[in-house]
Design goal:
BirA Bifunctional Protein, domain 2; alpha+beta; 358 residues; two-stranded antiparallel sheet; binds 3,4-dihydroxyphenylalanine; 2 domains; 12 helices
């Protein structure tokens, strides 16, 4: 029993003397661990007679509990003092300057697409997408471009290498093939807006080989040119944030619409400065028309039952006009100084007047 008392005192002294959590854990292992001192002593119980073993066993259990309780209490004290020490040493200097936050900006192309989608969404238009790599059928044939028709040349197409069977894929030259895919996929009524990348082999101040278009398509019963006109007039006024904007529908030609029109908006060009909304000049803004019956038939829609209108606009072009960006090629230079100047904070989307959320 003396031995037990000595061990008790020694262990309680070690617990009390532990300076930190690591050495306290060392005491725990050396007392209660598999090869610990209490454990080793308890092994000696085997050789005792049953009476002595019983009382010694009880005494060992009391000692074990006492040491375990002391360990827990000391652990709580040490944890507490470690936290206090950290609180005392780790101070926060609120006068330090903040680290600069590198916040991304929205490219004017993304901003412009968002704005256009925001304008058409309340009119019931949904966003549709199609592949950048198209086939001849969706990009030309279904859109009523006759074989070898010069309109196919008009588009300066990038063709992919011919496949063994002779077919040739291409990078879509416009977003109009998305019209075809939507009409093949779903039944009217259809109201879609298809923004996306388009490709033509061209490069100068107003052309880049990759650019963006937004296609609109409406198919329903009894759709007529009046619907097309009001839809486009509402759009240009909302986009340019002008209550009054002279608009002109000028007859034009596209293989996939009949009749076809190009839309001009009023502007002035005084002293080399372009001003939208006033003046005696006109500025072309988009192409549109009533969907050609041949296109409806090619897409499995009966032209005697359904009609519709379509339009297509160049995203870079309308972005340049609204935000005064003079050279198209700078859109794709990946120059951060340019983006800091022309970019938009992500939460500003869309920034249109006329009741849209900021
Ligand atoms: N796809 C035409 C182009 O790239 C633009 C266009 C014009 C689309 C008239 C249309 C449309 O849907 O009706 O030049």
């Amino acid at each position: 029993m003396d031995q037990l008392e000595q061990l008790r005192e020694a262990l309680l002294a070690e617990v009390a003397g532990a300076a930190d959590l690591t050495s306290l854990d060392g005491v725990r292992v050396s007392a209660l661990g598999k090869k610990g001192r209490i454990t080793a002593m308890m092994k000696g119980l085997g050789g005792m007679d049953p009476e002595a073993r019983k009382s010694a066993g009880q005494a060992f259990n009391v000692l074990k509990d006492e040491v375990a309780t002391a360990l827990d209490a000391k652990k709580a004290v040490l944890e507490e003092s470690e936290i206090s020490a950290r609180l005392a040493s780790e101070t926060l200097d609120v006068s330090l300057p903040v680290r600069p936050v590198t916040e991304g900006l929205l490219h004017p192309i993304s901003q412009t697409i968002e704005e256009v989608v925001e304008i058409f969404a309340p009119m019931g238009f949904e966003v549709a997408e199609g592949p950048d790599i198209e086939d001849d059928f969706h990009n030309f044939t279904a859109l009523n471009f006759p074989p070898d028709h010069p309109a196919r040349e008009m588009h300066d197409t990038f063709f992919l290498p011919r496949q063994p069977g002779g077919t040739r894929h291409l990078l879509r030259t416009h977003t109009s093939p998305v019209q075809v895919r939507v009409m093949q996929d779903k039944k009217p009524p259809i109201r879609i807006l298809a923004p996306g990348r388009t490709y033509r082999c061209d490069y100068d101040i107003t052309h880049t080989p990759m650019f963006h278009q937004i296609e609109g398509l409406v198919i329903d019963k009894a759709i007529h040119m009046g619907h097309l006109k009001s839809c486009i007039i509402e759009f240009v006024k909302a986009y340019f944030e002008l209550d009054e904007l002279p608009t002109r529908f000028r007859p034009s030609y596209f293989p996939f619409t009949e009749p076809s029109a190009e839309v001009d908006i009023g502007c002035s060009r005084e002293n080399g400065e372009l001003k939208i909304g006033a003046g005696a000049d006109w500025l072309e803004i988009l192409g549109c028309g009533m969907v050609h019956p041949n296109v409806l038939s090619a897409c499995g829609i009966d032209p005697d039952e359904y009609q519709g209108f379509a339009f297509g606009l160049g995203v870079e072009r309308i972005a340049m006009l609204k935000y005064g960006i003079p050279d198209l090629r700078t859109f794709y230079d990946s120059d951060l100084r340019w983006l800091r100047h022309y970019g938009f904070a992500a939460l500003d989307v869309p920034t249109l007047a006329g009741g849209l959320s900021q």
